[in-house]
Amino acid sequence: MLILGIETSCDDTAASLLEVRNNSLKVLSSIISSQIKLHAKYGGVFPSLAAREHVKNLPGVIKLALTKKHLKDIDVIAVTRGPGLISSLLVGTAFAQTLAWKYNKPLVGVNHLEGHLASNWLPQASNNQKKAATNNHLPAMCLIVSGGHTELVLMTGINKYKLVGHTLDDAAGEAFDKIARILGLGYPGGPAVAATAAKLKVGGEKLKIKLPRPMLHSKDLNFSFAGLKTAVLYLTRDLTKNKKRLSPQIRAAIAAEAQQAIVDVLVIKTILAAEKYKVKSVMLSGGVSANKLLRSELENASTKKGLKFFRPKMDYTTDNATMIALAGYWRWKLKKQKTDWKSVQVDANLDL
Ligand code: KG4
Ligand code: ZN
């Protein structure tokens, strides 16, 4: 069967075509129109601008996603209904509802976070195929780390999720974005901080810069990143007193230490959660899962504990519609929710 996925929860306009046949997945198309350049000058996403761009871009993005097939051939349409920016979500769902109504197709509203979880099952966007949802590595401890979320979710099956930890303030991606802004590195902050950290010369300033690892030793499974951001702000302010500019090496040292601090907390808490709930595997997802240091350190820590480790292919770390198509397929198969176009409701704060 063919699933058309549509994603507009934040600043990426995305549409994908996923084929599921004999329990095997094939990505026929995965189109993303990024608005990064537009929002960069604001240092973050400007909601009303994002919604306007979705209106402009969605028809073309869907058309591109459907180059190999016609809408008449689609079996199910899946669209993100939350969580996210309300104005952005409304554009995508209204568009999906119109298509579902016009072509008389079932429409499934998808939770964006379930999409990120599903991204671990996706094959590369080529002709590669992979068994769909082989669930023998469940239960899994899933770390979802994005611009808006930092959550530890115990997954015991499809549609069986339990939130066991979350951030009390900023999300990990938000911390990367804000630290990048303080250091003058641009938006989005995650890739910018990682690239700047990579410029640190071995044996350089790294040892002199020490930043906090908030809640590292708290017994619970929650996170907090606001203090780390403030520590970077004060450190930068101190170092730039008397109008001094940060040297490239110091800036790289701060970026490297901030990145390490975020990764340390994420890894330690995820392993703590995995041991507490006696899971078989650890799964990483969300935009911050593109971070190479996090990918390798979480993999090492998981395998040391005898746990399987999964992370999405790079194409599916940040927001995309292929993960929405797969989560929509899961939902459609469960037959637990209505699929007429009228039943999809947007919820900016939707829980998993
Ligand atoms: O999942 P996503 O695309 O959108 C949301 O649902 O929020 O995540 C975007 C977040 C941004 O905060 C961005 O800075 C972060 O993911 N990010 C990264 C990297 N690539 C993207 N963070 C750290 N390292 C990266 N390489
Ligand atoms: Zn996301």
UniProtKB/TrEMBL annotation:
The enzyme's first-digit EC class, named in words, is transferase
Where, per UniProt, does this protein localize?
A: Cytoplasm
Q: Which reaction does it catalyse?
A: L-threonylcarbamoyladenylate + adenosine(37) in tRNA = N(6)-L-threonylcarbamoyladenosine(37) in tRNA + AMP + H(+)
What are the UniProt keywords, alphabetically?
Answer: Acyltransferase, Cytoplasm, Iron, Metal-binding, Transferase, tRNA processing
A Gene Ontology biological process in which this protein takes part is:
tRNA threonylcarbamoyladenosine modification
Cofactor(s) demanded? Fe(2+)
* InterPro entries tied to this protein: ATPase_NBD, Gcp-like_dom, KAE1/TsaD, TsaD
Quote the cofactor binding remark. Answer: Binds 1 Fe(2+) ion per subunit.
What NCBIfam families does the record point to?
gcp_kae1 (TIGR00329), T6A_TsaD_YgjD (TIGR03723)
What is the recorded name of this protein?
tRNA N6-adenosine threonylcarbamoyltransferase
Question: What is the organism of origin for this protein?
Answer: Candidatus Yanofskybacteria bacterium RIFCSPHIGHO2_01_FULL_44_17
